Every structure is written in structure tokens, then in C-alpha cells.
Amino acid sequence: MYKFKKKITTILLYFIIIFVIFVIFCSIYNVYNNNENKSIESFSLKETFNRQKRNFKRMNNNYIKKYNSKIKRFFKSIF
Fold it and tell me: Which UniProt keywords apply (predicted)?
């Protein structure tokens, strides 16, 4: 009975040690990735997003102007 408990505790100890090593490696990997995220790639992605946002606003403004002019023409033709 005592040997069985001892085996379980050693197995648990090994699992705990492996888990701690895994957590340490994960944290190191995350720190490395976070430093890379501040590099040129993330900046270019941000720039791409900003460019698309500007294009969308410009497109919206053009549509608004176009439809405003159509509405004005319509009312001018009526009155």
C-alpha cells in the first residue's frame, strides 16, 4: 500500500515538474512573439487597415455626393 502511494506521488511530482517547464517555455515564447509584434509587419498591417478605412470613407462620401446631386436634380425637375 505504501509503495503504491509513493508511486502516485512520484508520478504527480513528475507531472508538476513537466507542467512548470511547459509554462516557462510558453511564457518565453509569448514574450518573444510580443516583441516581434511591435515590428514592421504589425505596422504594415495597421497601415493597410488605415488605408482601407480611408478608402471606405472616401467611397462613402462619393456615394453620398452622387445621391445628393440626384435628389437635387429630381426636386429641381419637379418644381
Answer: Membrane, Transmembrane, Transmembrane helix
Question: What range does the domain containing 31 cover?
Answer: 2-35+53-78
Q: 19 vs 5, 7, 26, 34, 56, CA distance in Å? A: 21, 18, 10, 22, 48
> Taking Cα atoms as reference points, which of 64, 63, 44, 40 lies closest to residue 52?
44
User: Cα-atom radius of gyration of the chain, to the nearest Å?
Assistant: 32
Domain total of the chain: 1
pTM of this structure: 0.37
**Rounded to 5°, angle at Cα 17 from 8 and 1:** 10
